[in-house]
Amino acid sequence: MIRNEVLPNRQECAGSLRNVIDALYVLNGKWKLALILSLVQSSKRFNEIQKEVSGISAKVLAKELKDLELNDFITRNVYPTTPVSIIYEATGYSQTLKSVIGELSAWGGQHREKVKQSMRKQS
């Protein structure tokens, strides 16, 4: 416990909890943030996304892209070529996750090191 730190009241805690639940509801699953990160780097076709985000099946990718489009994180642009070209790109709203992704990346790196250290101690 940290001394002299003002603890949030019950109402503030409940509000924070609701906010976290809402965020996790929209970004649930192991693929959504990876897909957003992939598309923030550059616009891509379906197959390009599937190659870059290894391990995701076509069925899951299609569902996740629909969910991200519904929540305004990406746009699906259809071009009337033969055959039809579909390009996915991140929206400006995706940029609002930049600090979240950065923090998760930093934490993930710390956690990976912690796991490595724990494994060394066990050997």
Structural summary, described in words:
The protein has a single domain, classed as Winged helix-like DNA-binding domain superfamily/Winged helix DNA-binding domain (Arc Repressor Mutant, subunit A, Orthogonal Bundle). With 123 residues, the protein is mainly alpha-helical. β1 and β2 form a beta hairpin. The protein is extended and about 65 Å long. The longest helix has 25 residues. The chain has a two-stranded antiparallel sheet with strand order 1-2. InterPro entries: HTH_HxlR, WH-like_DNA-bd_sf, WH_DNA-bd_sf.
Measured between the Cα atoms of the first and last residue, the distance is: 33 Å
Could you give the order of the helices and strands?
HHHHEEH
| CATH A-level architecture | Orthogonal Bundle
CATH fold field value: Arc Repressor Mutant, subunit A
Tally of individual helices:
5
Number of strands: 2
Tell me the count of domains. Answer: 1
Keywords: DNA-binding, Transcription, Transcription regulation
Protein name: Transcriptional regulator, HxlR family
InterPro entries: HTH_HxlR, WH-like_DNA-bd_sf, WH_DNA-bd_sf
Pfam family, one: HxlR
In short:
InterPro entries: HTH_HxlR, WH-like_DNA-bd_sf, WH_DNA-bd_sf. The chain is mainly alpha-helical and 123 residues long.
Q: How would you describe this structure in keywords?
A:
extended, 123 residues, mainly alpha
Topology:
Blueprint: H1 10-26, H2 32-41, H3 46-52, H4 58-70, E1 74-79, E2 85-90, H5 98-122
Antiparallel strand pairs: 1-2
